[in-house]
Amino acid sequence: xxxxxxxxxxxxxxxxxxxxxxxxxxxxxxxxxxxxxxxxxxxxxxxxxxxxxxxxxxxxxxxxxxxxxxxxxxxxxxxxxxxxxxxxxxxxxxxxxxxxxxxxxxxxxxxxxxxxxxxxxxxxxxxxxxxxxxxxxxxxxxxxxxxxxxxxxxxxxxxxxxxxxxxxxxxxxxxxxxxxxxxxxxxxxxxxxxxxxxxxxxxxxxxxxxxxxxxxxxxxxxxxxxxxxxxxxxxxxxxxxxxxxxxxxxxxxxxxxxxxxxxxxxxxxxxxxxxxxxxxxxxxxxxxxxxxxxxxxxxxxxxxxxxxxxxxxxxxxxxxxxxxxxxxxxxxxxxxxxxxxxxxxxxxxxxxxxxxxxxxxxxxxxxxxxxxxxxxxxxxxxxxxxxxxxxxxxxxxxxxxxxxxxxxxxxxxx
Length: 414
Fold this sequence. Notes:
This protein is mostly helical. It has one domain: Up-down Bundle (Growth Hormone, Chain: A), CATH 1.20.1250. The protein is about 75% helix and about 0% strand. It has 17 helices and 2 strands. It has helices at about 10-30, 30-40, 45-70, 75-95, 100-115, 120-130, 135-165, 165-190, 205-215, 225, 230-260, 265-290, 295-315, 320-335, 335-350, 355-380, 385-405, and strands at about 220, 410-414. Helix 3 (about 45-70) packs antiparallel against helix 16. About 60% of the residues are buried.
């Protein structure tokens, strides 16, 4: 019966990953909306509040190592369900905190850990295991959930903060996280890989031909083996720096805009503007990667758009300029989520996507944790984000060129 079903189960995995990543990253990227009101209520600097986002990112990235290992062995439904429960509890507790330490425990530790179970490692790796020929398209569609979630949840959070308060906004996020996370994971994400159910990747026999024609010598994967592989470090450093910059933007762009006289709701909506073109970018970069010779060229193009958007952001003085910068930056940002798992599968093999993606995410998370704190420290020292954007421009230029050096090589098995 499974073999004759009209809709290949891999597309249900895509739909589930789309929804899970939508609520997970949409909620996480709302933190910038809460930054100023939290700092004002607690009477603390932005760097102190931003540290919660940094801790969140470190816990998320550390948890991703274990999520990746588990994902190569068990169905994603239990990992995602556990993540949704932990993250929802974390958002609820964050709504009751009165001290920075409470914020670090609830948002930093609990939400970070829960987010790891609902993140790209669990979702994109699950999708990647069900596809070969259509992997770019499938992961691209699933990754679009990140942008759609941000488009929907950041304006909602901004509205709730304006009409009520930031604590009520966190309660709303916890409710959304719990209901959608558990429901979707238990219905759509309950299977591991196609071979376990008598199916083939992509749902047709053409995959066998493609697979055999592209087969390479495979080797047992271990952490030590990866640490000796230059491709691993190229991906870890490049993606880590790119995520560092994206986190600094998501956490500090709203505050930067309001500092420049832009109204709070319009400033919060600029995060949604990033996600609008990010939504398109996630689909297009995923789709085009199936068509081009090497996915590293997609990474180069995506980082170049992020670079152009950051240059525009450096000179923002109006709502129009802010939105143009956000739209250009967002299109490039849309390349990050779909192309990394494609590079992993292309360089290392689809059967070890979870393990390698999880380990990579730890190192990427270290970079991501630096972004919010770096922005807060620079603002506290100079009273402006000008030097943050200059640093981002230099870093993105180097990352774009470094992606072009990424080589091919041996593939691995668990």
